[in-house]
Amino acid sequence: MKELIETIVKPLVDFPEDVQVDVLEEDHRVTYQLSVNKNDMGKVIGKQGRVAKAIRTVVYAAGSSQQKKIFLEISE
């Protein structure tokens, strides 16, 4: 899943080397924390959050087979 997020986000940003995905696993949830360069935040979030919503939709669909709830957080 980490590779999927990186594959989606890196072509969108100007600084792909700054894209980092951290994974926090708990009992019933997995949280992926996506951090990008602060100059790329607008590109990852998109107008009215459309790009971020699309990324989350793909990630949630890919993880629907898991028994854990998946969350994606975007930070600088």
From TrEMBL:
InterPro entries: KH_dom-like_a/b, KH_sf_prok-type, KhpA. Gene3D superfamilies: 3.30.300.20. Its main location: cytoplasm. It comes from the Bacteria. The keyword Metal-binding does not apply. Belongs to the KhpA RNA-binding protein family. Forms a complex with KhpB. This is RNA-binding protein KhpA.
